[in-house]
Design a protein that fits this description.
The protein is mostly helical. It contains 21 helices and no strands.
Length: about 475
């Protein structure tokens, strides 16, 4: 077909030109008339209306710039670590530290001050905390509660050993660290409890990713490790909630806080869990998760987070509990993951890592003693977690190679540890120096997992043929 060119009628052009000239003329008449008017000295405001301070308006530019830099750098470093056969989240963790004062601020203070001015810290803090709340909700959604009942003898024994041993070692280490790195307004009881819990954490999502990447998640050792991590996660977060409640409450309110916490847990399990199961059945019957169902879930997780924050434990505990009552293999859980996971992983978690990096000042470790203390913390954390889990796994009947592998996997701390440490810093339980040491411990123990597991597999400590046979039998 021949091209048809639009022919413009000259009369139409004249009409448009006349309209434009008329509009311009009318505006200039309005302008001249308005020049004779006067306005009050102060603009009127509605009572209770929200106003944005002038100095805060320019902060948005810096926040947006920081978000772009953090997301791009975290993704690049995460992909690099994936090529090195490490979980991507490890690269993102290290990326957050590299963007902080320990590296970027040390080597280029002007660039650091431009990208992360002090004024944006409160905004990044809010974004990071929302991200952690959403992430813990997703951890709860992905938690396979059936694992808590599988291989009961082995999983319970190993998980309890991998909590009790590091908890006691961390509490013992507190006897030496408390006079050096704590403050007089923090009781030794709170400090020792927190150190014990911080040593006991296992990163269930990172552990699951490591096993899946190596195709070991369905074998005997893999299922035991996943079951142990599931039990460990639930137990550790309950202990963490207990410690936070004690740290935040006045001495006379500790019992009240614990009672409210127990009441909230009972409310969720006895009242909200049947509602969640009803919602799951409704979604399954419609074969589609509606926006209304997502609204109900979001409202529930936010209200639960608000409730636990008000009780005196952290908001993330309520979000985790709401996620845990949704069956992980339901359509609702799968749709929640598909809708939430990319946003949380791509946007919110890198911001949390960057915020953690901004608070981590490795330069505070400025003496040989400090670095020796840091090495001791890494050693105690690894001995408690690896040693306790390995010994318990061997006693439950696993071979030495498989027992050592379970111990290495349980020593993975990752993001979960950083969440605990940030809360400890907010509460004043951890000093900035001890916080930096614990962050280094979290990174080292997580980075060491994959290469050590590879060495055990390569040298025959783990029977790869048996793992494959186990996976096929489970499938």
């Amino acid at each position: 077909m021949p091209d048809r060119k639009m022919k413009i009628n000259p009369k139409t052009l004249l009409v448009y030109a006349a309209l434009l000239a008329g509009a311009v003329g009318i505006f200039f008449w309005i302008r001249s008339a308005g020049g004779l008017l006067t306005a009050p000295n102060q603009p009127q405001q509605l009572q209770g209306s929200i106003t944005i301070p002038t100095e805060a308006r320019g902060v948005l530019t810096h926040v947006l710039l920081a978000l772009v830099v953090v997301i791009a750098f975290a993704r690049a470093l995460g992909l690099l670590f994936r090529r090195l056969n490490q979980p991507q989240v490890i690269g993102e963790m290290i990326g957050g530290i590299l963007l902080g004062p320990s590296f970027l601020g040390h080597f280029s203070l002007p660039a650091f001050a431009f990208l992360f001015p002090t004024a944006i810290a409160p905004y990044l803090s809010v974004i990071a905390q929302i991200g952690v709340i959403l992430y813990m909700f997703l951890v709860g959604v992905e938690l396979d509660t059936d694992l808590l009942g599988e291989r009961t003898h082995a999983s319970v024994a190993i998980s309890h050993a991998s909590i009790i041993a590091p908890f006691l070692l961390g509490s013992t280490l507190a006897l030496w660290l408390y006079p050096i790195f704590s403050a007089s307004n923090i009781s030794f009881t709170v400090f020792a409890l927190f150190m014990g819990v911080a040593m006991s954490v296992t990163a269930f999502p990172v552990l699951a990713r490591v096993l899946t990447d190596r195709r070991m998640h369905k074998g005997r050792m893999g299922t035991v490790a996943l079951a142990c991590a599931a039990v460990d996660d639930v137990t550790a977060w309950c202990l963490f909630a207990l410690v936070v409640s004690i740290a935040r409450a006045h001495p006379g309110r500790v019992v009240m806080t614990l009672g409210l916490t127990a009441g909230f847990i009972a409310l969720v399990l006895l009242l909200l869990r049947p509602v969640a199961l009803w919602l799951v059945r409704k979604v399954d019957s419609h074969r589609k998760t509606s926006q209304g169902a997502i609204v109900v879930v979001c409202a529930a997780l936010l209200l639960a987070a608000l409730a636990t924050q008000g009780i005196g434990i952290h908001a993330l505990f309520g979000a985790f509990l709401i996620g845990a009552i949704i069956p992980h293999d339901s359509r609702l859980a799968r749709d929640i993951n598909s809708k939430f996971e990319d946003l949380v992983v791509v946007l919110f978690l890198p911001i949390f890592f960057a915020f953690t990096g901004l608070r981590t000042q490795i330069g505070l470790l400025n003496s040989t003693r400090d670095w020796l203390v840091c090495l001791l913390i890494i050693g105690v954390a690894s001995l408690g977690k690896f040693g306790g889990a390995t010994a318990a796994a061997r006693l439950t009947g696993l071979a030495w190679g498989e027992s050592a592998s379970v111990g290495i996997l349980m020593n993975t701390r990752g993001l979960m540890e950083l969440i605990v440490l940030n809360v400890g810093l907010d509460l004043g339980v951890l000093s900035p120096t001890l916080f930096a040491m614990m962050v280094i411990m979290a990174v080292v123990t997580t980075v060491a997992t994959t290469p050590i597991l590879h060495v055990l597999t390569k040298h025959g400590a783990i029977d790869v043929t048996q793992l494959a046979a186990d996976s096929e039998s489970v499938t």
